[in-house]
Amino acid sequence: MEVNRIELISCLDGMKKLPENSVDMVCTDPPYFLDGLGNDWDKGKLDKKGTSSVVGNLPKGMKFDRKQSKNFYNFYSEVSKEIFRVLKPGGAFVSFSSPRLYHSMTMAIEDGGFEIRDMLAWIYTQSQVKAFSQDHIIEKDKTKTREEKDNLKEVCKDWRTPQLKPAIEPMCLAVKPIEGRYIDNFEKYGTGLLNTSEETKVDGKFPSNVMTVQEGVLDSVFLVKKPTKSEKGDFNTHLSVKPVDLIEHLIQLFTKKDAIVLDPFMGSGTTAVAAVKSNRKYIGFDINQEYVDISNKRLLSVLKE
């Protein structure tokens, strides 16, 4: 099986080429089906709509459609079944999610055969408020007089749509069931147990299921800042780049050195970069040529260090 490669192919087609029980861990940030963006994730369409943070004149993540949850579940059910096949027994499957679609993602993963072990959380303090006022709706109401509009705006001045300022990005921690005892599985596959060495401890303490960007917010949790422009690369146009340190920490928690880490939605290559920096191998798929090129460019920079 060829490793340390990123292939321009859909995740399902790419994984079908992998042998069963061949991957030590899957760590990925899938498309969340927000703003009408599904598994086709056409970046060209996004670029035509404006800046990378705006979709259809509303900030990314603000649109709501009841079909999102069902569509995401159906898509991720198929993805999870294929991940289950290629992952070794005891292998960890860590998948990021939007908070409001976490339930759909987790049910899809569980229905794919996995055991749900935990919810991990990346907590951050700098984010965009996505709740909006009703002023523009009131203003467009042709049934009301000017005075009625002004009065209603005054009544609603402190009321917004029910969306709190986002400060958490959840991750589902799922595990493919082990064969026999934990020690038997670990001896055979090198998977199923948690790395609690100094590599993953924080100030000598046992690793927790919370990671945060800001020092002093919580004690004894893994501190990881949002990625800087230099970390991402000034050529990186991806919409939601995760910090390399965060992915590296996750990889170190659930794999041994030289393990194979799969990212079915490689995006701009953060999982691959983290794998290289952690002395692990990687396999990645993406359907966007621009992202594949960005990933390879970032990897080239890391290999030169």
Description:
There is one protein chain. A hairpin with a 2-residue loop joins strand 3 and strand 4. With 305 residues, the protein is of the alpha/beta class. The strands form two sheets. Strands 1-11-10-2-5-7-6-8-9 form a nine-stranded mixed β-sheet, with helices on both faces. It has helices at residues 11-16, 43-48, 67-86, 102-111, 135-140, 146-155, 182-189, 229-232, 244-254, 270-277, 289-304, and strands at residues 5-8, 23-28, 54-55, 58-59, 87-96, 115-123, 168-175, 210-212, 222-223, 260-263, 281-286. The protein has eleven helices and eleven strands. It folds into two domains: 5-126 and 168-304, Rossmann fold, CATH 3.40.50; 131-164, no CATH class.
Judged by helices, strands and strand pairing, the structural class is alpha/beta
Number of strands: 11
Helix count from the secondary structure assignment: 11
State the domain count: 2
Q: How large a portion of the residues is in β-strands, by DSSP E?
A: 15-25%
Estimated helix fraction = 25-40%
Overall average residue pLDDT: 87
Strands in their spatial order, largest beta sheet: 1-11-10-2-5-7-6-8-9
CATH class of the largest domain: Alpha Beta
Which CATH architecture of the largest domain would you pick?
3-Layer(aba) Sandwich
Could you name the CATH homologous superfamily of the largest domain? Vaccinia Virus protein VP39
How would you spell out the order of helices and strands? EHEHEEHEHEHHEHEEHHEHEH
Q: Separation of termini?
A: 27 Å
Q: Work out the radius of gyration.
A: 21 Å
Give the biggest sheet: 9 strands, mixed
